[in-house]
Amino acid sequence: MKLDKRACRKVAAKPLSLPAGHGLLGAEQIDHLIKAEVHNLGHTRTLILYLYPRQQCAQGNRLPRWTVFITRREFITLRRDEGGKTAWLLSMLDRLDCSYRFLSRCAFCTRRDEQIVLRFVGEKDSSVPALNALYRFQRRLWEKRTHQQRVLRDQPIVQRMRAVRALPRGLPAWVRQSVMPAYLFYDRTGRKKVQAYCTSCQKEVWLINPKNRRTTICPHCGRKAVQKTRASRARWHEDKETVQLIQCVSRTELIIRILKVRYWYAGTDVAHQHLYETARYFVGQQADGTPRTEVYHYAEWHDGATHWQPGEYPRPAFWNSGFDAEDVGAVYLPNLKTALLGTPWQYCPIGQFYRQINEPIQASTFLAACLEHPVIEHLVKVGFTKLAASVAYDRDGSQCLDESQHRTHRILQVEKDDLPLLKTLQVDARWLHCYQSYLGKKLRGRQQLLAWQVELDVRDVPEEILDWVRVPRFLEYIQAQAKFSADENHTTAGLVTLYRDYLSMCREAGHDLKKRSVLFPENCRAAHDEVQQHCRWLHTQKMRENFTQAYLAVNKKICYRHKGLQIICPSTPEDLVQEGKNLHHCVGSYAERVAKGQCLILFLRHTDEPEKPFYTIEVRGDQIQQVHGDHNSNPTLEVEQFVAQWKKRVLTPLFKAA
After folding, report:
1. How far apart are CA 429 and CA 385, in angstroms?
2. Where are the domains positioned within the chain?
């Protein structure tokens, strides 16, 4: 029964009855005084605690700041602020104030108040502090209340999980025979023929000329198994895998149950097994046909109506393996056809896709993608498994497809004759997009080029190369150049990039790419370095010409002499480098900016020492950007006055005239 708040308010404002000169009111080690009473409020026996601030009571305000009402089932607190306003709290006694020493600085007014609390909470040991006994009592009530709240909150999840069916009986055997690694344990006897135990089929078989850690085929079950001698087997050997079980929940919804399997061999041939569930994915179809996914994870620590909680399994920190959080694994196949029957995924090829790709998959994402992209069913059934994986798992995987079509070559937007090659290469979305670009250019030899790219994993062949070189000759040339780069550990993709850069620099340097000796140099690496040096020289020459041209028009007009100081222009980029070295700043790097017309660099000298660096000036248009001396020092007053006079008389009129 809940507390009657109206009845509680009637007894909540009881003033403190201690006399004005009582010793407790002057005890500085006490912050709050506690008065205890037991009343029958709303037909419920209730313990009432009045908490009075000591200093406030000493000043004449005897009303309690907190009034705590505690029954056998619940507790509640009425707080009163300095203005007299009240508010109800659900906090425990130790959390009424922010101070961590709150309870330790509280004291009962009399021994009788302490005994009332001990009797109410049922504490028989009178030596136990009453506040400690009350805290434990209140803690039990709080835990019970929060547990009830969690149970009430978990009811929708409990209803959700009632539709989940039991695990198939044949699941453990299927996991052992199809998912977990298989071993052939035998004793090393020195004989040619020995008897071994297969962990997959659990049968005794004969091995001829066994060898430790060799992969072979079990003669009985036909699975790949690793031969291991019992002597070399570790005392503790563990294998772990993830299995996804798909079950039908309703006509429009499936559940993917993430199961974790652990096998460990503790000195025996038969594995100890542990199978547990960590997550459940509910994949459904909404009214508009789009997929909807709800995720629940198993929270062992949760104390409520169920351990299943919404959200993905908590991702581990970097020091954990994260095995329990993985949702990629094997798919349980025996019940798959029955689970999908009568649902929107009745013709979903997830089983065929899993067999063809032959690696762990994420079933929840694949099922959701099948609703968004029905073309996945067609791609899997005609054998384009990796392309179907790109559509299902890549965000942009379907952009290279025309999903409105029904014929394979029209879906892939290629020629009909291209399908056998694309299927043999098992292209993904990126390779298909690459081939579509070749098809759009009507490139000859495109099939040969794509096959070469897929074989050597050369993802990109720049258009600059294909504009100058035919495909057969290009492939022949790159294969020949691989011999020169064998010692330098260059990949084929690196050679293609090197050749692309070589052709670009040849075009920049003005070489005739129609000449065979230029288009196909004997050693591409050496030719690349040679052309690179030539381009650098050309760049330097052009930069020097532009640098000289920048000062040619203003050289005589911008120079100025006044009161022992003068402004002169540099002649070459080397002058800037030398200026930077002498004055210890970075003006040497400004040569290219001057050549591009972004700024001008001028030198400030004494007229009697024109060769000795003094200050450096940067000018942009008619504005002076900076004036720095040795180690980027600021200009003196004399230099500032000279520069201001120069700007007024020379710089500003020069640009106004221009």
Report:
1. 11
2. 5-149, 171-337, 373-456, 467-537, 553-657
Query: What is the Cα–Cα distance from 592 to 492, expressed in whole angstroms?
Result: 36
Query: What is the spatial distance between Cα 221 and Cα 214, in angstroms, rounded to a whole number?
Result: 17
- On average, the pLDDT of the chain sits at 88
Beta pairing, strands 66-70 & 291-298: unpaired
Paired residues of 50 in beta bridges? 35, 67
Query: Which residues 6+ apart lie within 8 Å of 613 measured at CB?
Result: 579, 582, 583, 603, 605
Say which amino acid occupies 483: K
Provide the sign of the torsion angle of the four alpha carbons 208, 212, 217, 223, taken in this order.
positive
DSSP class per residue in 254-269 = EEEEEEEEEEEESSSS
Which pLDDT tens digit goes with each residue over 283-330?
999 999 899 999 999 998 888 899 999 998 887 765 556 888 899 999
Q: Are 138 and 131 in contact (CB under 8 A)?
A: no
CA triple 545-549-551, angle to 5 deg:
130
Rg (CA), the chain: 43
Share of the chain above pLDDT 90, in %: 49
Tens of pLDDT, residues 104-159:
899 999 999 999 999 999 988 888 999 999 999 999 999 999 999 999 999 999 99
Q: Cα–Cα distance between 74 and 66 in angstroms, integer?
A: 17
Q: How far apart, in whole angstroms, are the C-alpha atoms of residue 90 and residue 10?
A: 19
8 Å CB contact between 606 and 639: no
Residues contacting 635, CB < 8 A, separation 6+: 615, 627, 628, 629, 643
Nearest-5° Cα angle at 410, 409 to 412: 65
The whole-angstrom separation of Cα 259 and Cα 355 is: 19
**According to the 3-state scheme, what is the secondary structure of 460-496?**
CCCHHHHHHCCHHHHHHHHHHHHHHCCCCCCCHHHHH
Looking only at the bridges linking them, the beta strands covering 32-41 and 106-108 are parallel
> Are the C-beta atoms of 353 and 321 separated by less than 8 Å?
no
Q: Can you count the helices (H) and strands (E) in the chain?
A: 25, 22
Interstrand relation of 565-568 and 272-285 (parallel, antiparallel or unpaired)? unpaired
Q: In terms of DSSP H, where are the helices of 271-418?
A: 336-340, 350-357, 363-372, 375-382, 385-393, 408-411
Q: Return the pLDDT at 459.
A: 80
Q: Is the dihedral of CA 424, 428, 433, 434 positive or negative?
A: negative
Query: How many angstroms separate the first and last alpha carbons of the chain?
Result: 94
Tell me: the pLDDT tens digits for 400-427? 999 999 999 999 999 999 999 999 999 9
pLDDT tens-digit map of 39-57: 999 889 999 999 999 988 8
The encoded tokens of residue 357 equal 């790709």
Q: Quick one: which of 133, 141, 97 has its CA closest to 117?
A: 133
Q: Give yes or no for a contact between 84 and 107, defined as CB atoms under 8 angstroms apart.
A: no
